[in-house]
Amino acid sequence: MTDRIRVNLRDIVNNEERLVPGHRLCGGCGEPTIVRQILHAIDTPVVLSTATGCLEVSTSVFPYTSWNVPWIHSAFENAATTISGAEAAYKALKRRGNLPVDEEITFIAFGGDGASYDIGFQFISGALERGHKFLYVCLNNEAYMNTGIQRSSATPRGAHTTTSPAGEVIPGKVQWRKPFTRIMAAHDIPYVAQAAPHNYRDLMRKVKKAVAVDGPAVLNILAPCPRGWRHASDQTMAITKLAADTCYWPLYEVENGHKFTVNYKPREKQPVAEWFKTQGRFRHLFRPANEWLLEEIQAKVDEEWAQLLHDEECSS
Amino acid sequence: MTSNRSRTFVLGEKKEMVESTYLALDGANAVSHAMRQINPDVVAAYPITPQTAVVQNFSQFVADGTVDTEFVPVESEHAAMSACIGASAAGARVMTATSANGLALMWEMLYIASGMRLPIVLTVVNRALSSPLNIHCDHSDSMGARDAGWLQLYAETGQEAYDNTIQALRIAEDSDLLLPVMSCQDGFITGHGVERVGILPDQTVQDFVGQYVANYSLLDVENPVTMGAWDFTDYYFEHKRQQSQAMNESMPIVEAVSAEYEKLSGRPQPIIDTFAMDDAEVAVIVLSSAAGTTRSVVRDLRNKGVKAGVVKPRLFRPFPAQRIVDAIKNCKAVAVLDRAISFGSPDGMGPLFLDVTSALYNAGACDVPVIDFIFGLGGRDMTPPMVESVYDQLMQIRDTGDRGDIVRYVGLRG
Ligand SMILES: Cc1ncc(C[n+]2csc(CCOP(=O)(O)OP(=O)(O)O)c2C)c(N)n1
Which of A78, A134, A202, B37 has the highest count of CB atoms within 10 angstroms of its CB? Predict the structure, then answer.
């Protein structure tokens, strides 16, 4: 909460855009807003890799590109490894005098939650363990949106997706979300944080902090998807704000694997049902028969929030 | 970084033959020495038997400061090729090595490396694919990747594995080609077999490979490029046609690099190696280490007056079709020895046979009776008596004119 890193809006509006207009992401998609917030927060040149997914297919349609900066896509699962290869090349070429020694480059990999929580999980873990200096960003829209809204291990319990549909006997996804942010932090890397784009100051401050550390950093960022979540496309920011206000998506950071800081504590913690109400993917939870599930989810959110506050207390 | 990065090789002035130093090395070690002398910018690799020695030796070179390569000890072979792709896209000279299941795990990325025209060099120490699990030599791994858009060289000996590795790099990085190259040698038989291997002086190798300057690099932040774009129906087809054309037109580049290396090392570097083929009536076509056994059998047969010969392609991709046709077109019977099966092809033929027979058909040379022998799967030894039995069967075809079974097995229990 008390970091001295400042985000100056006046500077930002004068920055050059690195992800330029004309891309084909849907109106109301959280991803381009988040990517622009991230790239505006970084002063050095950047080199980006992006996993297969919505961001990639919508920004690199040959012969066009929306990227004003060096960018590579190789496959779905390996954005972290691809960027770790580029970072290794950077070290080697600098050491051998084939790049100017004072050339600072920030390496960033973007992946959706499918690319991060599921198919690319091992690849990220490997890159973090090896200690490459890069930032991994999970653009978390809580399902495989590019292929048509299939469940991932980031999909919350109870959500309807096309592979965890709400049916007559099964009320949406059965399993809980994987605690990805905590698992990333458990790698004892310098910096891990959870953020959301409505609170851009917090998000951009986290980016600045993440790229300043000497080693890997991970950001897990909630990225609403109007198509998959079933909400109006002008509600994106209101919805991520509600996710933070219900403590469904706490904004927090973990330094060196153990120092927890909760960056936003709602003055009045709202019931998680308020967040669910904004999205069609949870509509079935409001049927009387599914009341038990809503209660269960609320209990889990409360428990996780309490644990987070406890972790913060223990690390201060 | 300069913006106009046209590529030049900085080659040594002298092209006369340079003396090699002879060391006792196994095939895997021979490759790690080639890699040491090349001193690539980035090596990302993962261990698997029988390739492990390559990664281990190279790690030691890094630890001892013998090379100043950035070594990326990844968590899988898929990650190895992924990191190679990232590093190559960033303008680095990149090498790696694997075998069998490791190559299978890389499969997705093999196509991505070639589609992005990244000149990565991959040593494959050939080993059987599971299941059943088997760590010994056959060619099911690299043959499974024969359509992946990589050039493929096959070495008979540790010496050839060393020589091919150095040439592979020059071929891959040629600015008119820019395709990845697989340099294969037989697991255990060559990989763990200690031989006398001639090693060129370090500086000679450095001069031969020159300095690699990529046309495009992710690290060229002044000139940003988008790599690995998304092609719709309107461009993908043309891009694949270009890629195929690059492969089709790679032969002169392979020839030129081979000729230059031959001059430098004093060791012949034929695209296909022919032995006693001038007047051969019965001939065998075989890749890699089994060619040595076959050649020794041919010597005995020649002493007995049998007009036998051997053809050993060093290059399998691109397929040297015309050369092979020219070598065998006057034979009375030919056997292809395949150390892999293309499951479900007619009668379960091997990949080499499929290409040899299609080359003959396309050249209008359909009169030569060719049969296929599947041999050596999972490391089964190919002994001289087995090779003799192959020639016996060829002589029978020569004498009777009856081709008989097209796909046969040798060294298989009844
Ligand atoms: C190896 C592999 N498996 C499956 C796919 C198909 N695929 C492409 S994108 C995608 C889902 C992407 O989901 P996510 O990572 O959550 O990103 P989003 O599109 O939601 O931003 C899938 C399943 C693929 N490209 N590669």
Answer: A78
Q: Could you tell me the CA-to-CA distances from A95 to A100, A131, B205 in Å, in that order?
A: 9, 18, 21
Taking CA atoms only, the protein residue closest to ligand 1 atom 9 is A53
For residue A12, what pLDDT is reported? 82
Q: What is the domain partition of chain A in residue ranges?
A: 2-315
Cα of A44 from ligand 1 centre, angstroms: 30
Q: Spell out where B286-340 has E strands.
A: 308-313, 315-317, 333-338
Question: Which residues of chain A have a CB within 8 Å of the CB of B109?
Answer: 74-75, 78
Integer Cα distance of B347 and B218 in angstroms: 48
Q: What is the pLDDT of residues B386-408, one digit of tens each?
A: 999 999 999 999 999 999 999 99
Asked if A255 reaches chain B (Cβ–Cβ under 8 Å), the answer is: no
pLDDT digits (tens, 9 = 90+) for B197-250: 999 999 999 999 999 999 999 999 999 999 999 999 999 999 999 999 999 999
* Structure tokens, A94: 């600098």
CATH level 3 topology of A2-315: Rossmann fold (3.40.50)
State if pTM tops 0.95: yes
How much distance in Å is there from the Cα of A57 to the middle of ligand 1? Answer: 10
Tokens of B272: 């296909």
A81-100 residue pLDDT tens? 999 999 999 999 999 999 98
Q: Which residue among B41, B116, B217 sits closest to A92, beta carbon to beta carbon?
A: B41
| B chain contacts of residue A122, beta-carbon cutoff 8 Å | 75-76, 79
Domains of chain B: 17-265 (3.40.50.970), 272-410 (3.40.50.920)
ipTM here: 0.97
Q: What does the alpha-carbon distance between residue B167 and residue B205 come to, in Å, rounded to a whole number?
A: 10
pLDDT in tens, A265-278: 999 999 999 999 99
- When pLDDT is cut at 50, 70 and 90, the band that residue B15 belongs to is low
Neighbours of A22 (CB within 10 A): 10
| Ligand 1 atom at shortest distance from the alpha carbon of A223 | 21
Which residues from chain A sit within 8 angstroms of residue B227, using beta carbons? 71-73
DSSP classification of residue A67: B
B224 CB neighbour count, 10 Å cutoff: 19
Calpha distance A292→A279 (Å, rounded)? 19
Q: In angstroms, how far is CA B212 from the centroid of its own chain?
A: 22
- Each residue of B305-315: pLDDT tens digit? 999 999 999 99
φ, ψ at B64 (rounded to 5°): -85, -5
- Give me the DSSP letters along B11-72: --S--S--PPEEEEEEHHHHHHHHHHHH--SEEEE---TTTHHHHHHHHHHHHTTS---EEE
Interface contacts A/B by beta carbons within 8 Å: 165
Q: Are the Cβ atoms of B79 and A126 closer than 8 angstroms? A: yes
The mean pLDDT of A269-296, rounded to a whole number, is 97
